[in-house]
Structures are given as structure tokens and as C-alpha cells.
Design a protein that fits this description.
mainly beta; 79 residues; 9% helix; 5-stranded antiparallel sheet; 5 strands
């Protein structure tokens, strides 16, 4: 699992529950288009569909990459 440095003073970055669409769970960061934010851990777990490569997670972000993409960083997988 990656070591995510959380900035407690940040007003725009935060840990959030999400459903992440990815074929490889070994990735550490995901473009904004692959992440659907949800309100709760239970929604993230219920919305997961491993057969279609959708997994519940806690992510941190969004952060802007050097290429100008908005990224979310994996904190941990749920369920």
C-alpha cells in the first residue's frame, strides 16, 4: 500500500469514500474519471462490482498531476 502524505491544513484535499473503476488493484493513483465519490463506506462497499472492475475504496484527493490531470490516491481498499 502506498504511503500517502495527508496535509491536514489542506482545504481542497481530503480522504473520501469512492468506487474506483480499474483493472489492476495494484495501482496507487487513479484519474478523476475512474473515481465515483460516494457519501459513506457502506455505499462504496455496496457499489462495488468486481466482475466489472469496480471496487470500494478510500481515496485522497483530488490533486493535480504535473501533466494537469486531477488524480486520486488510494488510501486503502474496502471490503
Amino acid at each position: 500500500m502506498p504511503k500517502v502524505i495527508v496535509d491536514p491544513a489542506s482545504l481542497s484535499l481530503d480522504q473520501r469514500y469512492a468506487i474506483v473503476h480499474t483493472r489492476r488493484k495494484s495501482r496507487e493513483r487513479f484519474p478523476e474519471g475512474c473515481v465515483t465519490l460516494v457519501e459513506s463506506e457502506s455505499q462504496a462497499v455496496e457499489g462495488a462490482d468486481p466482475d466489472n472492475h469496480r471496487y470500494g475504496a478510500i481515496v485522497y484527493g483530488p490533486s493535480t498531476s504535473s501533466e494537469g490531470l486531477r488524480l486520486y490516491y488510494l488510501v486503502r481498499w474496502l471490503g
